[in-house]
Amino acid sequence: MTAILQAIGTAVPPQIVTNDDLAARLDTSDEWVRTRTGIAQRHVAEAGTSTSDLAVEAGAEALKSSGGEVDVVIVATTTPDRICPSTAPEVASRLGLGTVAAFDVNAVCAGFVYALATAAGLIETGAAERALVVGAETMTRIVDPEDRGTAVLFGDGAGAVVLGRGHADQPGAVGPFDLGSDGDRADLLCVPAGGARRPLDQAARDERANYLHMDGREVYRQAVKRMSDSSRALLARAELDVDDIDCFIGHQANARILDAVGDRLGIAPERRISNVARYGNTSAASIPLAMSDAGVEPGKRVLLTAFGAGMTWGSALLTWPELAAS
Ligand code: ACO
């Protein structure tokens, strides 16, 4: 059996922060951010809005259009409501799904692809019939508002999909996958304090170690290499050529990264999906938000690829289904 994509839902907080808004309080400019990243604006969660709020809104939309129950909920997030417990059980409960299995996956910006692979595995083995997979983030809560190097990059949002069970030759079929990680490079993009290694104290706050720290240039290099290599490995496993891909949906970190990966793979620009200008980098939410915007025709073959802190990366193939309107 194969996991089948049945529905997509999204949620973004209403508040929009433009590059000019950021330039009013940071030493940056709309021109710098647009040329370096392709980002024009991002949605930012208001005080009191949490990751689970966005996850519930996106999940409700996906469930509404696909109908019926699911027996597992997986939330991919870097920004859980609390360090303990995970966010998914509360999301499941608030969606009226009762006592279904529910857990989080943290693979940062590759989290949605990891969660999709996990859900597909549960469906293929018969452990689950239908799954709700949500990528949800409030990245602006862990980004240093005073660090121009990261504050301009990230935004908040959520995207959700419902997976059911079917056959590999059916529209909506998801897989195969390619997943990988490189923990030697964990320090390139991390929140140094607030976990078990370095609990949060005043010294950590004074160093701003409770916020995301990034070596931007090296992360850029790694992102291009890992997403390109993972996509190639997946195509080889599926015995497909790059010309067999109708639509390329990469992690929406940065337009230059997406262009570099698309160019390396030889994917024509008109087959690449990008909405980074509107949302910025929404980490685990970025792939499902881009899927929702993709406007793909049923039967077309789609390549998803993502890269995140960890380092982690993952790619997936799917055949686009006829999706019911929500
Ligand atoms: N506005 C103005 N100037 C800035 C800003 C800003 N927002 N940020 C940095 N600068 C300055 C730097 O301080 C530097 O100044 P200096 O030369 O005086 O030292 C100058 O701009 C150039 O900095 P670089 O880092 O060389 O700029 P670069 O062209 O590499 O672009 C960027 C920086 C956009 C961060 C790039 O490295 C990048 O995209 N990296 C990947 C980041 C990313 O996508 N991370 C997340 C991916 S993984 C995930 O999604 C979790």
Distance between the termini: 26 Å
Give the H and E element order.
Answer: EEHHEHEHEHEHEEEHEHEHHHEE
Sketch the major β-sheet.
5 strands, mixed
Q: Which architecture of the largest domain does the CATH hierarchy give at level 2?
A: 3-Layer(aba) Sandwich
The shape, in one word, is globular
What's the CATH H-level superfamily name of the largest domain?
Thiolase/Chalcone synthase
Chain-averaged pLDDT: 97
User: CATH first level of the largest domain: which class?
Assistant: Alpha Beta
Ligand species: acetyl coenzyme *A
Structural class category: alpha/beta
- What is the gyration radius calculated from CA atoms? 19 Å
Order of strands side by side in the largest beta sheet?
Answer: 1-7-6-4-5
CATH topology of the largest domain: Peroxisomal Thiolase, Chain A, domain 1
Residues in helices, as a percent range? 25-40%
Binned strand content: 15-25%
Low-pLDDT parts are: none
Query: How many strands appear in the DSSP assignment?
Result: 13
How many structural domains are formed by the residues?
Answer: 2
How many helix segments?
A: 11
